[in-house]
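Researcher: Re-running this chain for the archive, since the previous output was lost when a drive failed. Same request as before.
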Amino acid sequence: MKSWKGPQLFQTPFICWAMLEGMRPWVCLLPWALGLVLAQPSSPTPLPPVQAIPPGEMQPLAPGQRPAPTLPQIVLNPPIRFVERIAWASNGFVEAAEALVLIPEASTTPSFMLTKAQRVVAETFAARPSLSYVDVSIYSRREYAGFGGPLPRFTASVSRARLNEFLRLNLSNFLQFDHLWIKPQDAFYGPPAPVTDELELTPQFQGTRAQLRAQQLEQTVASQQGGVVGNRLFHGDPRQRVVALTFDDAPHPLFEPLLLDTLRRAGVRATFFCIGRNAEAYPYFVRDMVQQGHEVANHTYHHVRLNGLDEASVTAEIVQANQVLQAITGKPIVYFRPPGGRFSPTVLEVMRRLNMTVVFWTDDPGDFDNIGQGPLEARLLRRLRPGGIVLLHDNVLQTIAVLPRFLALAGQQGYRLGTVGGLVQGVDRR
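Model: Regenerated structure tokens:
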């Protein structure tokens, strides 16, 4: 039998062409390494490959996105003025509710907002005695543009055990309550930004053909050796049954208490890629993550696609989120995931300058597409692999419901799930 030499693409002519394109010298050796990789048996579930961004693409919706199941509502009787809705959800162990309150701009004083929040929290607990947590977000009605829009003016998360403590707060001591936030007068949300809601189905790179090919080759070789290559992490050590569990878009005021409770019960720690805007409005959930041993990472400040942005804009998005997260956690932020998986040479250069690592994934089951608990669990288990990186979202109730069984079954197969930092420990090739 003849030995496999690989296609002509991976031989000397390509190496010379790559060098002429100005690639880093070590990148020019990747075709040779890739030939060795392709000679090995292929994985039963291929990695999500780095793809080119289609030219002229407009802002899309997530492909095939299905609406999330409608959450049950709590109706107060009598109703409280300015309360828009109160939704609740459960992880099977505890229940949490989130109240959305829209008030006139003239009423956005600390005194009014604290009093309103205390009444809403107390009556929500009374209306549904099985609740463990009530979260309240108060916005100026004039500013409100949904969860991703301008910041709320006041937020709080109150457990039933701390209800009486919350109700005793007044203007002289309310800032001492560690699960309460009021927007500072000088808080700056930033200029309008093109927020994206598309799924991170596959990493997508904007650059020249040669640069795209280099990214694809790096991804393929990295999947065989594991660890950080350059400033990118595509895959952990494929020889070890260690997997990173990651959640994008955190924190969310309704789902964060449920997700953190689920992970605590399972004894599993994860990495949360936080949107700076969300972290700024709900800093206490970020503190809870750190206190419970989870890792906090950067997902931009506004959750924008970075491809096509100039270096100053990319830097601003990442640095602003870092500043928020570092102020909350007291720790440097090391890892970053680009929204929509969109990146470019500019993004990589900013990462290099900030000494941060871009984290991709091996397994995106599409939980944000609301595919159902059965298909979600099946995809998670089918794509599980040594050195894998699982991408989920913190604001999907189906994900929270599936997690206990998935984590238990993964453990039975000998997998240890944890943080990105734990995955790269010992195999960092930076």
